[in-house]
Amino acid sequence: MTHQDSSDLFATPEPPARRPDPAPVEVPPTPAPYPAAAGSGPQAPPSGSSEPAPSAPVPPSAPPTSSRPLASAPTETAPTETAPSAGNGKPGAPRARLGGARVTGILVLALLVGLVGGFAGDRLSGATSDGETSARLPVATGDAEAASGFDRPEGSLAATAAEVLPSVVSFEVTGSDDSRSSGSGFVLREDGYVLTNDHVVAAGTGGGEVVVVLADGSEHEGDVVGRTSDYDLAVVKIDVDGLTPLTLGDSDGVVVGDEVLAVGAPLGLDSTVTSGIVSALHRPVQAGDQATTAFIDAIQTDAAINPGNSGGPLVNAAGEVIGINSAIAQPPGAMQATGSIGLGFAIPANQVRTTAEQLIESGRATYPVIGVLLDTSYTGEGVKVAEEAQQGTSPVTDDGPADVAGIQPGDIILEIDGRPVAQSDELIVAIRASQPGDAVTLRVRSGDDERDVRLVLQASPSE
Q1: CATH number at residue 251
Q2: pTM (2 d.p.)
Q3: Inside any domain, residue 130
Q4: In terms of residue numbers, what domain contains 191?
Q5: What's the distance, CA 338 to chain centroid?
Q6: Share of the chain above pLDDT 90, in %
C-alpha cells in the first residue's frame, strides 16, 4: 500500500505508485484493497468499452486471500492511466484513502492529546525545586518598614492621625451607684490637664471615680478640676508630666467642605479614627445628658461619631483641634443615641479655649446673656420676648443689657449681627458663641416698628 502524506488528505488523487516486489500481505476478513501489483499494471479499457480489463498476474508468493469478493470498490483514474478495478475479486493497484469519518476522528484525537499534554506540561513546569507551586498571589513591593512607621505624605489623613493619636485619651467612669460609662478626651497641657465633655465625667463626681487611660494604655486616677453643663465641657487633672498636648485651632476659620478627622474611643474601642468633612456651621444643638442641657453653636460633620466619641477631638488636616465631639443626631422617635447616621456635632474650638481657661483658673465658667426670657411657644417670624414672668423671673431683667437697650416684653428679635433667627435655640447659641463684654446688634420689631439696637453682653455664672 502506498504512503500518502497527511497534508494531501484532501488533494486530488494521484496515480498509485508501483512497487517491484511487494511484501506478502495478509488481508483481514473485512474488505480491504489488494496490494499493488509489481511493475506496471495493465491499462483499463476506455470509457464505454465492453472489453473487460485484463487481470494482473498474482505473484506466486502471495498467500491466498479471502474468497469474499470486494464489491463496488471505486476505480481511481488518472489523466493518462487507470488502475485496474479491484471489484469482482480481481486484484488491482488502488491508492490508500481515508474516509471523512476517519479523518474527523483522527483530528479530534489529536486535539485531545494536545490538550492533555499541554495541561500536564503546565503542571510540571509550575513545580519549583522546593516543591512550591507558581500559584502565588502578587506581593507588594513597597517598603513595609516605611509603611509601619507611617511614612506618609505631609498633610495626608494617615500622617495627621499618627500625629494626633498619642494625645488622645479615653475615660472610664464609675458612678456612686456603681454605674459605668466611658468617653474620650485629649491632652490640653503637658502637665496633665485633659479635656472632655461634662456629661462624660458627671457621674464620677460626688463619690464616683474617674480613670483616664492614656494612648500607651496606662491608667491614671483623674481629678475633675472644673465643669460646666452650659457648655458641656470639663477639665480633668492627672498626676503625669511630659504629655504631648494638641493645639486648639481657630474654629472661626473653618468652612464647609474642610476635611476633618474624629478621634476617640467609640463603644470603648480606643484610638479609633474616622474621616469626613465639615458639612455645616452654626447648627443650634442641645447637648448634655437628660438632667442638664447645653446650647451649642455647633460644627456639623459627617465623620462617624458614635457613643463613646464624646469629648474626643475633631481635627483639621493640620492636626489642629477645631471642635470637641459632643452630640449625634438620631431619627425621630429614638429615645437615645444608637449610632452615627452621618450627622455629628462638635463644640467650636474657640469656645473650648475660653471655657477651658476659665475652668483651669477658677474651676468655674461664665456665659454671656442679654437679660430676657423667650417665649418658646411662639411660632411666628423671629423670636419673641416673653410677655409675662416665668417662675418669678421678669421677662426683661432690670438694668440688664436688653433693658438698657430699650427692649420690651413682647418684642420680636429678627436678627443678631445680621444673621436671621427663627427659633429660640438659634438666638441662644448665637449669643453663647460670643463672650461676656462683647457687643452685638439685634434687629428688633416692636409692633409695626423695626429698629437695630446695640447692646453689650453680660456675664452669668455657669452651673
Answers
A1: 2.40.10.120
A2: 0.69
A3: no
A4: 157-362
A5: 22
A6: 61
